[in-house]
């Protein structure tokens, strides 16, 4: 949680953000706020002047006119304030959101996105970003209330210093209580964020088309709804406890204020009866006591709200200023040309200290221009190894060298610029077909020739052309962008789109194919493998597949077993050695042969 220093830092950050986002808006808001704040004080003084002048039989034209002008200002200022506050909120909100997601993009690896505490903080940071514009209204609301407070306190001081003191003193506990409550509320919001994130998760699940099949078939609706409501109940319980604390504190403080106001009223009436106060004095006093208390209340509440928002905004500041999750080189090197390729040297890896070892001393070389295949049972660590190559994590021990240079010495953007990949769990974006391929290399965005060529090589061009709006067809039924009905591709078609995406990245130094054909029918699989064989020729590539027939042409096949490379060589060598690879290969081939001989 953010402490006092953190709140101060967040306040400075918020002020900077707001000023940069809309300096003109801040100035206009300040002017209107001051006018709005001064109006009631001026009006009350003018009323006193009018009444006293009237009682003395004088001319009340000027005080009455001044009252009318301040009335006009009071009537129009709130609307103007509301508009300016909303506009400032929008501008500052956009800037804060941009800053947050720019910072998020700077995280190099995946670990932060797998850290629940970070995800909680991110949610509050988003909340802080979207409400950051409200600081201006909060702070100016405080300024407005402070001006009114000072004005009315001054009026009270003139008439009765004692009453001024009593009103000021009764407001003091409210200040302390509200700030304590705001801290408590911010802490409560942090505590219930995990529940709120889970509630969002369940609600999205209940509304998602991907989950709808299983939810309906397995009858999961009531179960998931129950869990969603359970999380809401937990969050509500936290909020309720806080609300009750506020009720008790604010109720008590309200009572104290009412007692002070009542005492002031009795005193004023008695003093007027004794002839110590004029009619105007009584009118000003009544207005001043009520308005001082109202202004003090507004000041305290605005301060408390702003304080709470600052604590929440502290999460935004914390995310934006978080150190990179993986160490970045001060002076990045570049990969020298013409090296031996990529080498994993005694690489050990586990996802965290609490997780088991996934890779245990892997030594593997992917020589330049050669194809290496990685095979192994489920959970052997193949996809993990791919993630390390892309530097989505760093090895816990050991090194990955690219042409002799440790990949940690490279700028991650340069490293990734050299790699093209089809991940096992590749994405299907709710975009058009064309954009779904273009994400592989955004320089091809809006270049139908390049996108079409990549789709052709991945063998999906004809299918995309046959869609209702060809490449412009949305590959989603979730959004309606006015481009006509979207479609849902089949699993295999998506796989080819992902392949086209990787092919679009063109001549990268390393092509990674993690299960590129798992969802394909036998004919498509054969076709894709033929295409990839041609495409890979002469390129450095790492291929992962459970279909051993698809990897047999690789220059080297490495068998990963529980995080260790247990065999490595060409297909014929491994078959001759008669180890695990040969056993798996025979097992697969046997399956097909059995099918053939069984009538
Ligand atoms: N993000 C993660 N956090 C924690 N553990 C993980 C994570 N990703 C994978 N693992 C674990 O690491 C081990 C290796 O997983 P990995 O995905 O690398 O296996 P794989 O060889 O690619 O398997 P498959 O053939 O099933 O795709 C598994 O035990 C898995 O549970």
From TrEMBL:
Residues 342-587 form the ABC transporter domain. The keyword Transmembrane applies. It is a multi-pass membrane protein. SUPFAM superfamilies: ABC transporter transmembrane region, P-loop containing nucleoside triphosphate hydrolases. Keywords: ATP-binding, Cell inner membrane, Cell membrane, Membrane, Nucleotide-binding, Transmembrane, Transmembrane helix, Transport. It holds the Pfam family ABC_tran. It is found in: Cell inner membrane. The chain crosses the membrane at residues 61-81, 149-176, 247-270, 282-300. Its main location: membrane. GO terms for molecular function: ABC-type oligopeptide transporter activity; ATP binding; ATP hydrolysis activity. Residues 27-308 form the ABC transmembrane type-1 domain. The keyword ATP-binding applies. Belongs to the ABC transporter superfamily. Siderophore-Fe(3+) uptake transporter (SIUT) (TC 3.A.1.21) family. This is ATP-binding cassette subfamily B protein.
